[in-house]
Amino acid sequence: MVPMQTIRSRVQFFKITALSLIFCASVVSGNVSLRYLPVSFNQAVGATTPFFTAVFAYIMTVKREAWLTYITLVPVVTGVVIASGGEPSFHLFGFIMCVGATAARALKSVLQGILLSSEGEKLNSMNLLLYMAPIAVVFLLPATLLMEENVVGITLALAREDFKIIWYLLFNSSLAYFVNLTNFLVTKHTSALTLQVLGNAKGAVAVVVSISIFRNPVSVTGMLGYTLTVIGVILYSEAKKRSNK
């Protein structure tokens, strides 16, 4: 589908390794947070990713957005602060892990943007995923075997009880692959910050679906916070359109 590219330098390999490690950290922290927080609140916190992305993009690439773009991130963050105060199922450790996952997701977006667009180190999306995936396995597999006792035996036991879990895992893995691939493509053709703001539209849908499926309680204050965050996302999109004209 695409021409094969090789890793050109140790520096490039180090960046891909760092990207894999950050990716693992974001996924693990996000999964841990879901043990303590409802999906709706998790997605609301995740909506602050553009804020972290803007900070990391400025630190790592000295890339500034228009001042109006930064202003539109204020309601995004403020909405999450309000939602946190009004969340009936708030859990401090889960919240810390969720914020950590959000920051790691933002850092990953900026770093993958560098690898996909910088001169001399540019990789296409498929090749970046090709090199990143096995490095992620090297990080995750030993950690899983050490930290989760008898994880293979438990998975096999669950499969014997209901084989559908294997199909769930395969389907989930396939979705994760396409999510990463499309993430890389969006980052390459737009920017890391735009990727994260677009992701918040997904977050708004996830909040509604989560509440309807899991029936987790949501306060009026929490809903006001979620709404403010979505409004911030819309304002950001308009600000980016104006800055690109």
From TrEMBL:
Family matches, as SUPFAM superfamilies? Multidrug resistance efflux transporter EmrE
Q: Which UniProt keywords apply?
A: Membrane, Transmembrane, Transmembrane helix
What is this protein identified as?
Sugar phosphate transporter domain-containing protein
Highest taxon of the source? Eukaryota
Per the database record, which ranges form the Sugar phosphate transporter domain? 4-237
List where the protein spans the membrane.
Answer: 40-60, 67-84, 90-107, 128-145, 165-186, 193-214, 220-237
Query: What is any Pfam family matched here?
Result: TPT
- Compartments in which it is found: Membrane
The GO cellular component terms are: membrane
Q: What membrane topology was assigned to this protein in its record? A: Multi-pass membrane protein
